[in-house]
Write a structure and sequence with these properties.
about 500 residues, alpha/beta, UDP-n-acetylglucosamine1-carboxyvinyl-transferase, Chain, 2 domains, 4-stranded mixed β-sheet, about 25% helix, globular, binds shikimate-3-phosphate, RNA3'P_cycl/enolpyr_Trfase_a/b, EPSP_synthase_CS, cytoplasm, transferase
Length: about 500
């Protein structure tokens, strides 16, 4: 097969992708985008003009909200639906751009997927071994999780697929996924320099079961190996030194696979996960709880806007996802966990959050996997806390949708917040009073950088502008109306 890309297989990639580091390229777009039949709308268009947004300080936030469905579980619901026999019904799916890309990819690989109502989807899968070669490049847009998990699927099955995405995804390391897949019998037919997308993977007729020690704590790598292991005869084992989110393990069991999870190593932080290959996965019902990573934005806003009281309904409390709540409580946050209950195999709770006087703390590196997506908004909380907050061991933040360590530091600098990066640690010092604000923050195609600094603008002395809010649609498409309903003021443009 010829290499993918402008001169390779599949449709022409057209113009250059919009850059995650060079905002001057933002009139360009990533690979092909096709309409999504039956979905609530087109994925966010990466060729539209940037959409600056400004958050202005205003009055206290009040009210209640249900954050959108969890992104990690939503991707997995589609992927497991694809790999199952029979029908999977999903309730509460996150209908953000990232997940819609996974919907499209699952369709291209052979699933029949229909939207039956808001957040309600039906998937009829092909079963393991029944996938078809996609006719087109799989364009994952901004979605690291969707693309990496689907690489695991393709890398374990007798299909060939080309993966691509926007300028942000094209910068992200994929070697970490390809290395174990090669050991499992997949071939990487072509790849962009440094193991990046666009890349083409050809899966084997049957995978080779392996024992794989994760080089970094990453649920994406773990999940890719386990998904590839579904078509391997025998036991595929993944060892992680620090436990990362366990949604894949839980859903493997829910769909009928046999998975053994045991503690691993000293200190009780690690796990060994053993999957018995070639199960029959059967379609089932998936209820998607509210995403704690999206809840983090209104939660921190309620803590730092004086006089606020907000209740967040049905937020997933999986202990591998609640590092931010633990941290904020240590900082003095008034967060009550109410009405803890089971929903779709996860514990959920309502969180009552009241504006609080926060103080700086040391956040241990071991906690990072349980709050890996929450550091941008924690840095904002730290800017309003009294004293120094040291966030340790943030190396993985450099390879997220943007280099989040650099993007957060630049945003703090723009808004007059005292901070320093020491190695992989971010140290933020607040005075206990409102941050100065008044800056314009570059978001580098990163939804969480955009939302974090809009939260800052709700509580700072002066408004805060983000250069582009379009990517917010990848994970929290209703962010603006949700925040407006609580009383926040977010306006279009660099309006002061
Ligand atoms: C995710 C895992 C995390 C996280 C991402 C979602 C998942 O990435 O940052 O937003 O759903 O598995 P890593 O596994 O690379 O840490």
């Amino acid at each position: 097969m010829t290499p993918p890309g402008p001169h390779g297989n599949g449709p022409q990639l057209g113009r250059a992708p919009r850059s995650a580091t060079a905002p001057c390229l933002r009139t360009h777009r990533a690979g092909p985008s096709r309409p999504l039949a039956g979905s609530p709308g087109l994925p966010v268009s990466h060729d539209s003009a940037p959409q600056p947004l400004t958050a202005r300080p205003g009055h206290a936030l009040a009210g209640e909200l249900k954050p959108p469905g969890d992104k990690s579980i939503s991707h997995r619901a589609m992927i497991f639906g694809l790999l199952s026999i029979g029908e999977t019904r999903v309730e509460g799916l996150l209908e953000g751009d990232d997940v819609l890309r996974t919907v499209e990819a699952a369709r291209a690989l052979g699933a029949t997927i229909t939207r039956e109502g808001e957040g309600r989807w039906r998937v009829v899968g092909t079963g393991i071994g029944g996938l078809q070669d996609p006719a087109d490049v799989l364009d994952f847009g901004n979605a690291g999780t969707g693309s990496r998990l689907m690489m695991g699927v393709v890398g374990g099955q007798p299909v060939t697929a080309t993966f691509d995405g926007d300028a942000s995804l094209r910068k992200r390391p994929m070697r970490r996924i390809l290395d174990p897949l090669l050991q499992m019998g997949a071939r990487v037919v072509s790849e962009a320099e440094g193991g990046r997308v666009p890349l083409t993977i050809k899966g084997p007729p049957e995978g080779i079961p392996i024992r794989y020690e994760l080089p970094v704590a990453s649920a994406q790598i773990k999940s890719a190996v386990l998904l590839a292991g579904l078509n391997a005869p025998g036991v595929t084992t993944v060892i992680e030194k620090a436990a990362s989110r366990d949604h894949t393990e839980r859903m493997l069991r829910l769909f009928g696979a046999e998975v053994r999870v045991e503690p691993h190593g000293e200190g009780g932080h690690g796990r060994s996960i053993a999957l018995t290959g070639q199960p029959t996965l059967r379609g089932t019902e998936v209820i998607v709880p509210a995403d704690p990573s999206s809840a983090a934005f209104p939660l921190v806003a309620a803590l730092i806007v004086p006089g606020s009281e907000v209740t967040l309904r049905g937020v997933m409390m999986n202990p591998l996802r609640t590092g931010l709540i633990t941290t904020l409580i240590e900082m003095g946050a008034d967060i009550e966990r109410l009405d803890e209950r089971e929903e779709g195999g996860e514990t959920v709770a309502d969180l009552r959050v009241r504006a609080s006087r926060l103080h700086g703390i040391d956040v241990p590196a071991e906690r990072a996997p349980s709050m890996i997506d929450e550091y941008p908004v924690l840095a904002v909380a730290a800017a309003f806390a009294e004293g120094t907050t040291r966030m340790n061991g943030l190396h993985e933040l450099r390879v997220k949708e943007s280099d989040r360590l650099a993007a957060v530091a630049a945003g703090l600098a723009e808004n007059g917040v005292d901070h320093v990066i020491e190695g992989d640690d971010l140290i933020v010092t607040g005075t206990g009073a409102a941050a100065r604000g008044g800056g314009t923050v570059e978001t580098y195609l990163d939804h969480r950088i955009a939302m974090a600094f809009l939260v800052m603008g709700m509580a700072s002395e002066n408004p805060v502008t983000v250069d582009d809010g379009a990517m917010i649609a990848t994970s929290f498409p209703t962010f603006r109306p949700t925040m407006a309903a609580l009383g926040a003021e977010i306006v279009e443009g660099a309006n002061r």
